[in-house]
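Dear U.,

For the methods section draft, I wanted the exact inputs and outputs in one place so we can describe them consistently. I've listed the two proteins in the order they'll appear in the manuscript figures. Please don't edit the token lines directly; just add comments below if something needs changing.

First protein:
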Amino acid sequence: MYADVKVKIPTDKGKVTRKKIKGTTYIYYQIERYYDPEKQYSIPVSKTIGKCCEDDPTMMIPNEKYLVYYPDAKLPEDKNSARRSGCLRVGAHMVLKRIIAEYQLDVVLGDLIGKDSGLFLDLAVYTIITENNAGQYYPDYAYNHPLFTSRMRMYSDSKVSDFIASIKKEQSVEFLNKWNENRDHREKVYISYDSTNKNCQAGDVEFVEVGHAKENQNKPILNYSIAYDRNNREPLFYEMYPGSIVDVSQLQYMLEKTEGYGYRHVGFILDRGYFSKENIRYMDRCGYDFVIMMKGMKTLSFELVMKNKGTFEESRKHSIRGYKVSGTTVKGKLFPSDEQDRYFHIYYNESKRSGEREQLEEKIDNMASYLKNQEGKLAYECPSALCHYFEPFYHGQGDEKVFMFARERQDVIDREIKLCGYFIIITSEKMSAEEALDLYKSRDGSEKLFRGDKSYLGNKSFRVHGSESVNSKIFIEFVALILRNRFYTYLKERMKKNNKNDNFMTVPAAIRELEKIEMIRQSDGNYRMDHAVTATQKEILKAFDLTERNIREQAISINKQLQMIEQM
């Protein structure tokens, strides 16, 4: 927590450094260094002791750590420490408060977590508004925003760290039970299921393993997946599993969890990463319908495409205008021992064809260039990935074996060229090609959750120590995703109603605009709105059924609450 005073920035050479983050310059004090044997140099470990004053680069506003490392320093006494900012950003907080009330998250979390539930909500809202999940910067947010904590109390980063460590896994499990308890289990829902992974800068975390990272290969990661209700456009539940477990192996455990949450009449929309014979059969045994993109099985794909090529691509009847593709549906078996009829929806995209062909041709050119450079080399073995497209020729045997040249497998390459522009979706339930594509494209909801998670919630990695802290951060993050996804849905519905896409109606842009609604503290100690709500802000607020009058009323309520706090 930052004091409302200024002090000289310490000048200890080699100990005090500066780092600018999102426009604010923070002052760090180095407490130790440790040697990294992999990088072969020592790395400093530093703590924030304050932030630089904008009007004087030699002065800083200290936090509570300043007196820990400079115990003999004296703070000026003419100002009250840890005082709230004279300018509070209230707009985004008001809108997110409305969504919290709509879902009764304050009540549910209050029952589960108790007196610190307000801090939990503040952390969730903080990650959305600031696009950051680092607890050390939470005090900056608390300094100039209304809070959900009792008496709008501002907590230090050390309190935040202790609170995160105190959240138990049983509390997150119970939250998911209550959250899914309130869903309508009678109607059929299609659940979009997807996963991602996160780097974890952690100490003793049992789930962190070197695994199959989508970015930053060979880094310690944990896997994290979300089930998303495409009908109601809401995240349903999440799960965390070790970094070394691949998505296709985890799917069956997720299906069992779905049943445990009370969902019986469901179908699943799955990415091609979950495509396997075992998963298909398991869903059949459970009676679950599925929509899945076909992966591999190039022989079957080729046969399906060639058998139907020319029958639908140029027909207006088969045009799916919403996605600018043509599509047709055929029935058949997925594999020889398949006991069920499947519906294969074959699509052709003219613009996609040229891009895919160019990508394939460029790949073949790069392979040919690489193999050309290997000619004449002793004991060189052509990798299997390259042998698929090229036939290698050698001279000699054993240790004297020399790679001579490689010839393109024209039949294999021509076969793949003929598949360019085509893709296949498989469904267990009978439906049209347009219905299947519409269902599969609804996966955009879960993909946007992950993009929102990594890009807009600052959650590409976890900076924690211990399994409990990782569980807690994912729990907070999931609640933040619930709020952000609802925020996104409101904006999308408003744009659809207006029949136009305003650039300020994206989540990040809308939050930035709402953050401009401010309350300032005047000389009488009361907070008042700084100016009227703008036309752009009014349009954003309409998406949430809020008006300028609602904002003024909430502003008055916030001021009354702050005045009561001052008098205590």
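Second protein (the one for the lower panel):
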Amino acid sequence: MSADAADRKRGTLAALAIFLERRSLVMLALGFAAGLPNLLIFDTLSLWLRDSGLSLKVISIFALATLAYSLKFLWAPLIDRTQVPGLTRLLGHRRSWMIVLQALLVLGLWLISGTDPARSLGMTAAFAVFVGFTSASQDIVIDAWRIEAADTERQGALAAAYQWGYRIAMIVAGAAPLLLADAFNWHVSYAVMAALMLVGVAGALGAPREKVHAIRPIHAEGTPSRPALEIPEWIGRLAVFALGAVVLGSGLAADATLLADGLRMLGLPAAGETVRAAWDMKPEGIYFQLVAVAAGLVVIVLAACPLPGARTRPGVYLSAALGDPLRDFFVRYRGVAALILALICLYRLSDFVLNIMNPFYADLGFTKTEIAEVRKVFGVVMSVIGVGLGGFAVARLGLVRALVIGAFAQPLSNLVFAWLAVAGADLPNLFIAIGVDNVASGFAGTCLIAYMSSLTTAGFTATQYALFSSLYALPGKLVASQSGRIVEGSAANADAGGMFSGLKAMFAGMPPEAYASAAEKSGATPAALGAGYVVFFFYSALVGVAAIVLAFMVAARQSPSKPSAS
């Protein structure tokens, strides 16, 4: 064996060995602890509510319990800057927060297990919101520990381990509570789920202590303390902050229930119904939601800004807590920060636009059972493999190379669906298409997580990562809203003899049932609808070109300055 081959073998074995390190095994447990409460309140709880005789309208409102996941960057600075008395000295900053939040999650799920939604719906809802907020806060801490406990080359493996644990939790939270509810009742089911959160507690206690956490100082020197004036100012600022959070969250969650109910409580029921109707418009509602996101951010910034011409402690503290992490990022990545943010926003775009895949499979002629078995079982397995390959690539090839490969993998994998659209409803073809797409998606997702992790700095880890993870899906919401229009518009163009009409010849040999029922709904011929899907999948690949270009530009130009010492 040559020296080069021996070096490559050692490098491969070293990259694989990272997955067996203590930190990676801990991340499996922490990923499980993060995924379990999420699905229990977002999905499984809805079946309990339905069994209790509640309407679908009431059940859908419970989705707001997970709103905290979209807004977690707003209180991440508090977790960055606040110590847990007693525990921080013993366990370290991040692990002490983990233990506290996991204890609260055990309590919250246990309290839900003791409620009866049919008799005390308000109490069940309050506990669900509590679990949602606490679980989102746990996510902040777990991400921060993962970033601070390992170097960059290990971030891919840790991100992969986290996602594996998360997926295991989703399987457990999706199946075990239902089996327990059938065998016993929902109260026993959720009590057992509360006990399963001890897996996360074991992970936190077994985790290596992260590096010493340095809390960044807030410089309020020279600003006199005036409690009589500061208390009303704090109340006013926090009220405006909460208003901004409601508006922002309503946009991010694509649900205007909270905003509409707030307007109704203010005596403006008509305005509330107008907002709700605007959110529900198809597809124009997405634009109202994005306006709400922008407006909410503006209101939050105003709540944190210092008063004009007056330096006050509330203004200093809020502006520093929210503004310093952003300033630190732009200082460290001066000249390339905008490119980095654009890359984060666009990196998964070609994946996010594939929001019409179940209709596509059905239109092609696959049965619901076939779709469920291939997508939800085989697809999950292939996604797990892709996640692992992403972690291995980061460790073996380096973060930047893996990131560039991931940028190529996503759009190229979408072209497999264009082939499937022409090949027809053959089950092996569906296995191939979903397998390729899920491997590519898992690979790219892991690379992006590792990359965003590398952008944070000590003292601001939780806040910066929470901001990045909230940011990256926003453009996808806007572009994905047009997916159905592109398919049907391209089909109409093909039927009218337009530029896509030549694609209809590709479907001459298709079985008569392919696209037939769907074509009636779309007002197009089956061959034209097939052509519309082919155009869409090529479009979904083309939107990924921007991420490829940005990945190369960032790889060439990114050279962060030293972290600020403020």
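Candidate sentences for the figure legend, describing the second protein: The mean pLDDT is 86. The two ends are 52 Å apart (CA to CA).

Thanks,
Y.
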